[in-house]
């Protein structure tokens, strides 16, 4: 049925400065049964030339080109649609995969047939490959991961690997227009239809530069209000998808407190409002199969939000 075990999908747009290292990190994998599908999104630099040079040395590398710039979501979806592997592994064109990443994630999914998605930790690197920080999300319990996705994104996109038949079965894809947060929405949808777990391994060297796709939106003032709107939309989708019902005012408070960038609560009234919302969510969780995980996540989130409040500054 599948022509290869793993399809690594790599959208690329003007990544000539880094794409050779990204490709080399795939070629150097200890696990060899893979194909690398690169979809170039109408780059204007030398990306395509560099990719073709790599293709000439390894026939497992495949290049497709968009006739016009379509954006990261559509480009990644196209790559996934072209994939012939049993598993889909994600990797951006400016990032690097550790040499044993595929081997470890494939081994996990082969041994855990009840898990649809696996991810790992990552190291943040700069444009010169210098390590800046280490990030781990040691969440193995699928029900706890599902609950956590209601308050923030806990899955580093470039560490993810999932079963292709899983995303096909539920027609899961990346949605356009979410200003660098397409992955957060995608992982929420995955959690609503399947089970997600992780391995305690570094699965990615994530390159954080000014040209990084997320930074393009996150640090540009002209996108600020729209990104806030889309982030709130994602949080609301997570609540509704998990079966929670809040009033319009409660949703506004919830999204405000959990806004991207560590919003700091300003008043005691807001703390009281948020406390009542958390209690309401915990009450509504009583009939859910992950009630204990939801309560744990919500209580911890209330504590973090309270600790970060402006009231302590007075």
Structure write-up:
The chain has twelve helices and eight strands. The chain is of the alpha/beta class and about 325 residues long. Helix 1 links the parallel strand 1 and strand 2. Helix 9 crosses helix 10 and helix 10 crosses helix 11. The mean pLDDT is about 95.
**From N to C, what is the helix and strand string?**
EHEHEHEHEEHEHHEHHHHH
| Range of helix content | 40-55%
Broad structural category: alpha/beta
Q: What spatial form do the alpha-carbon principal axes imply?
A: globular
**What is the total tally of β strands?**
8
Q: How is the biggest beta sheet arranged?
A: 8 strands, mixed
The low-confidence runs, each spanning 5 or more residues with pLDDT under 50, are none
Overall mean pLDDT: 94
Summarize the topology.
Elements: E1 4-12, H1 19-27, E2 34-40, H2 47-55, E3 61-65, H3 72-82, E4 85-90, H4 101-111, E5 117-125, E6 131-135, H5 142-148, E7 161-163, H6 164-169, H7 182-193, E8 196-207, H8 213-218, H9 224-241, H10 248-257, H11 268-284, H12 291-307
Parallel strand pairs: 1-2, 1-4, 2-3, 5-8
Antiparallel strand pairs: 4-7, 5-6, 5-7
Describe, in short, the structure shown:
This protein is an alpha/beta fold and 314 residues long. The protein is 42% helix and 18% strand.
Observed structural traits:
alpha/beta, 12 helices, 314 residues, single chain, 8-stranded mixed beta sheet, 8 strands
């Amino acid at each position: 049925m599948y022509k290869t075990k793993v399809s690594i999908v790599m959208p690329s747009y003007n990544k000539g400065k880094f794409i050779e290292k990204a490709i080399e990190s795939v070629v150097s994998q200890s696990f060899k049964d893979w194909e690398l599908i690169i979809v170039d999104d109408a780059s204007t630099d030398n990306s395509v030339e560099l990719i073709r040079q790599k293709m000439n040395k390894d026939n497992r590398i495949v290049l497709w080109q968009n006739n016009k710039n379509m954006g990261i979501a559509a480009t990644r979806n196209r790559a996934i649609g072209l994939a012939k592997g049993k598993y889909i592994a994600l990797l951006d064109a400016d990032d690097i995969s550790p040499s044993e990443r595929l081997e470890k994630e494939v081994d996990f999914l082969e041994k855990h047939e009840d898990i649809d998605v696996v991810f790992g930790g990552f190291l943040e690197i700069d444009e010169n490959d210098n390590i800046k920080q280490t990030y781990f999300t040691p969440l193995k319990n699928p029900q706890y991961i599902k609950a956590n996705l209601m308050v923030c994104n806990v899955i580093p996109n470039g560490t993810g690997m999932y079963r292709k038949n899983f995303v096909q079965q539920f027609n899961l894809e990346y949605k356009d227009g979410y200003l660098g947060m397409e992955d957060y929405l995608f992982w929420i949808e995955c959690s609503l239809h399947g089970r997600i777990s992780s391995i305690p391994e570094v699965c990615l060297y994530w390159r954080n530069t000014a040209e990084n796709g997320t930074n393009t939106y996150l640090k540009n003032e002209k996108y600020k209000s729209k990104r806030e709107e889309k982030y709130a939309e994602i949080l609301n989708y997570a609540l509704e998808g998990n079966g929670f019902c809040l009033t319009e005012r409660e949703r506004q408070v919830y999204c405000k407190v959990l806004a991207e960038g560590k919003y700091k609560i300003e008043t005691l009234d807001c703390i009281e409002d948020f406390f009542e919302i958390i209690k309401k969510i915990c009450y509504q969780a009583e009939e859910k199969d992950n009630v204990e995980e939801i309560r744990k996540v919500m209580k911890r989130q209330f504590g973090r939000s309270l600790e970060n409040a402006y009231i302590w500054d007075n």
